[in-house]
Specification:
By secondary structure, this protein is of the alpha/beta class. It contains 18 helices and eleven strands. The strands form two sheets. The protein has a six-stranded antiparallel β-sheet, with no helix packed on it. Strand 7, helix 14 and strand 8 form a beta-alpha-beta unit. Helix 2 runs antiparallel to helix 4 and helix 3 crosses helix 4. It is elongated.
Length: 437
């Protein structure tokens, strides 16, 4: 779903690093290094820094999975939150693998290289047993993720066990005996307890009891048809409550008729003043192919809205929209809202599709253009005009310095435009989601 899995600097990233850095260093306060030789010091630094930094990263990764609205703001979009979630989750596993390495260094320093098998496999007490279960469980899931390709639903179901392994690992940390850092450093005890408790409650709330504790909106399918280019057009009508959202945002949607009740994220294509919801979904695999078979009346559950791709730039007087393929979806929602706004900024929209017949809602966008003098719409089929660059656009509409540039399309397209924006010094004006819904 994310474009390149590259974590980007933001206030959220800075806060994340600060939260993780504190326990990475605070364990040294009051720790007695004086009576230890160099090998022992190295062993303790590796063992404890890996443990507390890894545990903090693991906890923070679980918290990032909670879809909290303040995280959306901190990271400038929920898509960036999930990139950070994946990054810190992976980094936590890598760090935690160094924890037993530190133990091994200390074991060899005290007992020599003998009996290493017992050192790694022994279960001398409950705390040690819990630590082994948590660590080896993480390793198995990590290896499984790398070497086995499975359905998305299976991947999500198995990864829910990560929260269980975190809880086991946290119990291990807090029950490690009177000589442990947490038993002798009150600040560390409280810091790690609050962080671990928050992560555990987030896991329970959003993974184990998601529908029970996190209310959803009830809808039903009113219409489904397949558009040229393998795009499924799904229209839903509400049963009771209607959510409020901003054009450009997305919802997590689950359909009762599907084999799995897993929620999938889809951008809204309809206006935010309509009671109905419209989603456009590209047929990319087993799950999305089955969406074409949804029948009118099928129950749907919506959670949201989420996302920071909301066209709310205040720094620039004009907006440039570049849509590629299914990436036209958030622009459709915003274009509909222009009809009811006299204060909308000047907008230039370039709609890139493989062919004219695959340009979704081209006729509707033409009509909106005719009715709104600030909206200028251009459709550019690739089989006729090729792929337009930012330099080409600048030649047509003038310098881009006064434009907020919004782009949504396939991952390769986003990468290309991001590179072009950097070359032209426009990267601070660029907005795009790292999802391809």
């Amino acid at each position: 779903m994310d474009v390149d899995k590259k974590i980007r600097f933001s206030p959220g990233l800075a806060i994340s690093l600060f939260i993780i850095l504190i326990p990475s260093l605070a364990w040294m306060i009051g720790f007695d290094f004086a009576d230890k030789d160099l090998i022992e010091i190295i062993g303790h630094i590796v063992k404890r820094t890996a443990a507390f930094a890894g545990m903090a990263m693991f906890a923070w990764s679980l918290i990032l999975s909670g879809r909290f609205k303040f995280l959306d703001t901190w990271f400038r979009g929920l898509d960036k939150v999930y990139v950070a979630h994946r990054f810190f989750g992976t980094a936590a596993l890598a760090l935690l693998l160094f924890h037993p390495l530190g133990y091994t260094i200390l074991h060899i320093a005290d007992n020599g290289a003998g009996n290493l098998l017992q050192h790694f496999l022994g279960f001398s007490d409950l705390a040690v047993a819990l630590g082994r279960v948590s660590l080896y469980g993480l390793i198995l899931i990590g290896l499984w993720s790398i070497f086995f390709k499975v359905r998305h639903e299976t991947f999500i179901a198995v990864h829910r066990w990560l929260g269980v392994l975190f809880v086991i690992g946290a119990v291990h940390a807090f029950s490690s005996g009177p000589e442990s850092v947490l038993a002798n450093n009150q600040f560390m005890w409280w810091y790690m307890f609050i962080l671990s408790l928050t992560a555990t409650l987030t896991f329970i709330h959003y993974s184990l009891l998601a529908d029970f504790l996190h209310p959803y909106y009830k809808y039903k399918v009113s219409n489904v048809h397949v558009l040229p280019g393998g795009v499924i057009d799904i229209e839903l009508e509400p049963k009771y409550r209607i959510p409020s959202f901003k054009p450009g945002q997305f919802f997590y949607v689950a359909f009762d008729a599907m084999d799995a009740e897993e929620y999938h994220p889809y951008s809204v294509a309809s206006s935010n003043d309509s009671s109905k919801m419209r989603f456009l979904v590209k047929q990319l695999g087993d799950y999305t192919n089955k969406l074409a078979d949804l029948k009118p009346g099928t129950k749907a559950r919506l959670k949201g809205p989420y996302g920071g791709f909301t066209f709310n730039d205040k720094k620039h007087g004009k907006q440039l929209w570049i849509a590629g393929g299914i990436g036209v979806t958030p622009f459709l929602s915003k274009a509909h809202s222009l009809r009811f706004s006299k204060l909308a900024p000047e907008v230039k929209m370039f709609h890139c599709a493989r062919a004219d017949e695959e340009a979704i809602d081209k006729d509707i966008l033409d009509i909106i253009e005719q009715g709104h003098r600030a909206f200028d719409y251009t459709c550019l089929p690739e089989n006729e005009f090729g792929i337009i660059s930012l330099k080409d656009i600048a030649e047509q509409i003038g310098e881009l310095d006064d434009y907020a540039i919004y782009i949504c399309g396939p991952p390769g397209m986003l990468k290309a435009y991001e590179s072009q924006a950097q070359e032209l010094g426009l990267d601070n004006q660029l907005y795009f989601e790292e999802f391809s819904f």
